[in-house]
């Protein structure tokens, strides 16, 4: 018997050392995230491994799992606790060691293993841990599997049995790097800033970019799990500004920034201006749909409206579907529709054949950006960006809202705008043109300006994004309109950043 996990235990006690602690809110919509020590302990991680092993069997998948860990001071110990749980459940574990998340996804194909359990807190601050899981490559779990996993773990419905085993795959990163770099070298000599924020990607990204023919300017590529400069997150302005400074200082063609587990890539152009990932997606969609006829793309609801209105994409016959934000939702939808690629505003890009295998990989995104520049020999990154129709868009802004209340607030905001549309009320001085409610609410008014409010899937926050094709003032008007609705809910706190 293994004890039923408790939601709270006091550290430095007998109970904390002898019972599993698992806070229920750590089971998110498509992965798991906890504050290590405060919300989950090592025995809790062990329980998670047992629960995952039981779920894999329940789903009818072969009980073989790839595992690896990101570069944090505690990630290796968490991985070994997870492995002990998986083995107790009868799983064969393939450990690839320190790695980026996409390396674990690649290993599922390379080692012919159906399941994955990657220990990473992604771009969350130090103190957080988590696991990205899947049992059907290249997909990762969605809400149904996560809900069932939560039930199994919290109720200790383990089906432990003998037969678990362990195999460590030595020097596995070399196989991943060889796969990525087995392509024609770039014809154009590109100088590229490769920024890793001292996170996991620093061990791999510079050599990959060099191998495809780039001149690499490394920025914070030394591994340091204290993250001394800033959190490795290419959506945060602090990291983007550091990349800007390096691009300008070295007169680089482009700056590429990778998040803590290497599945996302942020882009800064040759003038030092950051290009939000959804606009990078439009640029890549233009490039890819010029080569592939009738290309289909999937983008998340936080993304620019240009995917539908851009005249170049229209002329090239590209079709785009807006879908739920979240790497698992986007991966699944891109896979279901057989789309050429999926682009998420956070920087998760999903390339299907011939570009990739359907999972998100920041290095594949970086290579795609460099190959796009290679196919446009006379043009700079800024030229390609400036060729897009002008829109004014905000970064992703996140006001604090507790995990226990955020979905209720988001539902109330959806209902507010649905009621307003029914009575033909106005938002930022204009009538509502359309509402998209697949994930929170995206409100578009008559002049094409839009605002989005949704619940964050992996943090105690809401997410707000606004854009206008008209002017910066109209973008700000939309923000005021969305924020004024949020301010009617006392549960909503301060923003992490604002326009």
Automatic annotation (TrEMBL):
Protein origin, superkingdom: Bacteria
Cell membrane among keywords: no
UniProt-listed Pfam families: PGM_PMM_I, PGM_PMM_II, PGM_PMM_III, PGM_PMM_IV
GO molecular function: intramolecular phosphotransferase activity; metal ion binding
Boundaries of every Alpha-D-phosphohexomutase alpha/beta/alpha domain copy: 26-158, 175-272, 278-390
InterPro entries, per database record: A-D-PHexomutase_a/b/a-I, A-D-PHexomutase_a/b/a-I/II/III, A-D-PHexomutase_a/b/a-II, A-D-PHexomutase_a/b/a-III, A-D-PHexomutase_C, A-D-PHexomutase_C_sf, Alpha-D-phosphohexomutase_SF
Protein's UniProt keywords contain Membrane: no
Domain Alpha-D-phosphohexomutase C-terminal: 415-483
Keywords, sorted A to Z: Isomerase, Magnesium, Metal-binding, Phosphoprotein
Cofactor(s) it depends on: Mg(2+)
GO BP term (any one): carbohydrate metabolic process
PANTHER family named in the record: PHOSPHOMANNOMUTASE, PHOSPHOMANNOMUTASE_PHOSPHOGLUCOMUTASE
Recorded family membership: Belongs to the phosphohexose mutase family.
Record's protein name: Phosphomannomutase / phosphoglucomutase
Organism: Bradyrhizobium lablabi
